[in-house]
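Subject: Sanity check before I submit

Could someone independently write out the structure tokens for this chain? I want to compare against mine line by line before I put it in a report. The sequence has 175 residues.
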Amino acid sequence: TQDPAPGGTVVPKNGQVTLYVSKGSDKVTLSDYSGISYDNAVSRLIALGIPESQIKRVDEESDKVEKDTVISQEPASGTAVDPKNDTITLHVSKGSDSVTVPDISGYSPKAAEDSINNAGLKINEQGLSGSGDGQVVERTSPSAGSKVKKGDAVTVYYSKANDSKSTTSESSTSN
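---
Independent answer below. Compare away.
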């Protein structure tokens, strides 16, 4: 803008006209929000003058980053942004859909079922006879320590507590 306004005022020769030049919008520099909670990151962005309506959340599965924690951001940290116009995208962990098959070798049928269910898995029992008294878990498939999707079934193989493993192990032959 200028003073006097254009279009009507005649300024004498060597008269003064004041021009107002905009510096543009005030930019703010983004910090690194990875590794902090989503709510904390949003609070920090709002404190910079970025309205919540310009903060976008994208949920992603992650085995390495805790649920509701920022994994990454766009634009990257160190970038100067216009808080009135730029959108900030926060990629947030929704946790992992995978779980580890627990080691239940030697467990009773009830303890095995509880452990499998507590891990978020379903149980498929093999070789369990009667009430299961005197029977223990010999092995599982997938084996203990394997990563599987939450809700998957784990096959549990039982044997008598005093049986040797060779009497219930599966054998394979090549033809």
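---
OP: Matches mine. For the report I'm noting this point. The longest strand covers residues 153-160.
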